[in-house]
Design brief:
This protein has 429 residues and is mainly β. It contains no helices and 35 strands.
């Protein structure tokens, strides 16, 4: 309980600047500014006089609501934003694990596990079953990398020779434009185990026609002379689709061959290899260490096993986690190294600008000038007198939720979407 007060400012050629919430603890009865105004957060009034901004209105925050009960909200001049767009990199690591950076990849958070939806680095992230769901908070341009799980290295011949290295997972990259209505479904493939192939990774949004698949790498071949390495996984649906690297051949009375190098991406902030082939395991040459396992290929490939003595089987090294690298082949009958898990990485830059929502109930929402650098403009009004006289520009999205009539009078050039969820949007002029 208590009194609701009105606030009026008279600044002449100066500006009124609100650095935080206005009317949050107790709504103002009304707000009147005589000249240009800057707001960094939402403004709430509940009287019939509403809110009147006598000059240009600058949005200095990222998500601002002008709520006036049933009073009008009017801006005499232009509406623009000086907010900087959001940017981030998020690594989806499998089994609900993730890490993120908000400084261009200079540092990353400690990996955490998610289940129910949480807000992370500019979006909503959840995990259920075997898949993630990621939805950005604002429109953005997202670059993606999808890498399948690496294949496992193979068992070598029990006659003390080497198994083939596993193949690297498929590798796919591309770019897509998203809004806060676009949820991405992500699966991160496991690496192969027990001489098995890796699992696929995927990035999907059916409504956008996005269906990126990076298959897992094949396991290395086993128990044959000169056991060949596994083939790399294939990929499809991205802008660039590359097969994972082939694993190295196992040694037959000879040194194991190295796995092939994978592919590079700079999506995490530095140039990094992925999808390397596992090295082949060494074969017995009669003395040690004259025979060695092949090195894993750049991109997380595991090294092939080095024998220590004739009768002791040695396992190959696993592929590196979240690279899609193949596992190394073994020496003799020990197990090949498991393949490295795949990864899906999203790097995004949101459009500069604030989201502005005007909730004016039965009151009219009016803007006398242009609207620029606003990511989403939402009008909730049942008035038939709502109007925007100037042009709406840039990559804005326009949403009309009220039952009234919103009239657009300017030569609009905005490139975002227009959603009419209720009421009417009329074009005039």
């Amino acid at each position: 309980t208590g009194t609701n007060y009105s606030l009026a400012t008279t600044t002449g050629t100066g500006s009124t600047i609100f650095g935080g919430l206005v009317g949050n603890t107790r709504a103002l009865l009304s707000l009147l500014t005589s000249g240009d105004t800057s707001v960094a957060a939402s403004v709430t009034t509940n009287g019939l006089s509403g809110q009147s901004y006598g000059g240009n209105l600058t949005l200095a925050g990222s998500d601002i609501t002008l709520a006036s009960g049933n009073g009008p909200v009017g801006v005499v001049g232009n509406v623009s934003s000086n907010a900087i767009g959001t940017a981030g990199i998020i690594k989806l690591l499998g089994a609900g694990s993730y890490a993120y950076s908000i400084n261009g990849g200079l540092t990353y958070s400690t990996p955490s596990t998610v289940s129910t939806a949480i807000t992370v680095a500019g979006g909503s992230l959840s995990y259920s079953g075997s898949s993630y769901s990621w939805t950005p908070n604002t429109s953005n341009t997202t670059t993606y990398l999808v890498v399948g799980g690496g294949g496992a290295g193979s068992i070598g011949c029990s006659c003390y020779n080497g198994g083939g290295g596993g193949g690297g997972g498929g590798f796919s990259t591309g770019t897509i434009n998203l809004t806060n209505a676009n949820a991405l479904t992500v699966i991160v493939g496991d690496g192969g185990i027990n001489q098995g192939g890796g699992q696929l990774s995927s990035l999907v949004n059916i409504s956008l026609g996005l269906n990126v698949i990076a298959q897992g790498g094949s396991a290395g071949n086993t128990e044959t002379a000169n056991a060949t390495g596994g083939s790399g996984g294939t990929s499809a649906g991205g802008t660039t689709n590359t097969q994972g690297a082939t694993g190295g051949k196992g040694g037959w009375n000879s040194t194991g061959l190295p796995g092939n190098n994978g592919s590079t991406s700079s999506i995490v902030g530095t140039s990094t290899y992925y999808s390397g082939g596992g090295g082949g395991g060494a074969g017995y040459l009669g003395n040690f260490p004259s025979s060695t396992g092949g090195l894993g290929g750049l991109g997380g490939g595991g090294r092939g096993a080095n024998p220590c003595c004739a009768s002791v089987a040695i396992a190959g090294s696993p592929g590196v986690a979240n690279t899609g690298g193949g596992g190394g082949g073994s020496y003799s009958s020990a197990g090949g190294g498991n393949g490295g898990t795949g990864v899906v990485i999203l790097s995004y830059t949101g459009a500069s600008g604030s989201a502005l929502t005007i909730n004016s109930g039965a009151g009219a929402a009016t803007i006398g000038g242009n609207v620029s650098n606003v990511s989403t403009l939402t009008i909730n009004s049942s008035s038939t007198g709502s109007r925007i006289t100037g042009a709406i520009g840039n990559a804005a999205n326009l949403v009309n939720n009220g039952a009234g009539i919103l009239t657009l009078l300017g030569n609009n050039t905005f490139s975002g979407g227009t959603n009419i969820n209720a009421g009417t949007v009329a074009l005039s002029g």
